Amino acid sequence: MTFELGITVDQSDPINEALTCPAPIVQLQIGDPQSWKAPSLGYQGGPQALREAAEAAGVGIYVHAPYVINVASTNNRIRIPGRKLLQQHVSMAAEIGARGVIVHGGHVTANDDPAKGYENWFKAIDGLRLDCPVLIENTAGGAHAMARYLDSIAKLWEAISAASDFDQVGFCLDSCHAHASGEDLDGIVDRVLAITGRIDLVHLNDSRDAAGSGADRHAHLGQGQIDPELLVEIVRQANAPTILETHGSVQDQCADMAWLNQRL
Question: Which string of DSSP letters, residue by residue, matches 54-121?
């Protein structure tokens, strides 16, 4: 069995960075991840040029949406701009020829009925023009998060399953987030598949902090607090494209990729 492993790259030179490993897939951002501004691709020649370069090199692209997006929110000033920003990212990702746009599950507040958050997710998916698939990612912390715990993900999946173009919605499993959330990583792939029926992408990261900490702090593979064998098993069992988000330089991620390849 061969596994498709990739790295997180800068949008200015993603293909050359991919080829240094070499990595058949990459993840990038097409704007400031902490900003509400519309996406702006820093690749010379724009989206079409990147699409052509990626196709010529045989490199698949994933786009990570900004972290500020929270389509579950009951606050109109957060939810409505978030939907707009997500649509903008989906549309540009489609121009690039990306395989998917990863977006975090978001949250409501302590004063909200969680059901409202799931309903808002349904409305968001139902109202999006999904020219490119959206991959919802499990999150690390938050007592009122929509995708921290597996039972929450089950409620989210049930809510959005009636949306139009639901077949264009997938799931991204992040190992560090699951560890930080307090979920047991042993057998987590089967438990996720029982809920979503699919894992479209894995974010494989070790964790700086202890299980259940709620802290989203990635570590290099084998250097954090997750059992290394569990990390390898997640990739084996999910049998899905896998992106490393272990930070540092491209060379650091390539070292993580080599670590993983050796064990697979």
Answer: HHHHT-EEEEEPPTT--TT-S-HHHHHHHHHHHHHHHHHHHHHT-SEEEEE--B--TTS-HHHHHHHH
Per-residue pLDDT tens digits for 202-216: 999 999 989 889 878
Token readout for 138 is 């499990």
Separation CA 137–CA 189 (nearest Å): 14
Q: How far is CA 9 from the centre of its chain?
A: 14
Angstrom distance (rounded) from CA 103 to CA 69: 8
Residues 58-96 have pLDDT tens digits of 999 999 999 999 999 999 999 999 999 999 999 999 999
Confidence tier at 236 by pLDDT (50, 70, 90): very high
Given a contact cutoff of 8 angstroms between Cβ atoms, the answer to whether 83 and 72 are in contact is: no
Separate counts of helices (H) and strands (E) for the chain: 9, 10
Question: Which CATH superfamily is 5-263 part of?
Answer: Divalent-metal-dependent TIM barrel enzymes (3.20.20.150)
**Gap between the Cα atoms of 140 and 109, Å rounded:** 16
Rounded to two decimals, what is the model's pTM? Answer: 0.97
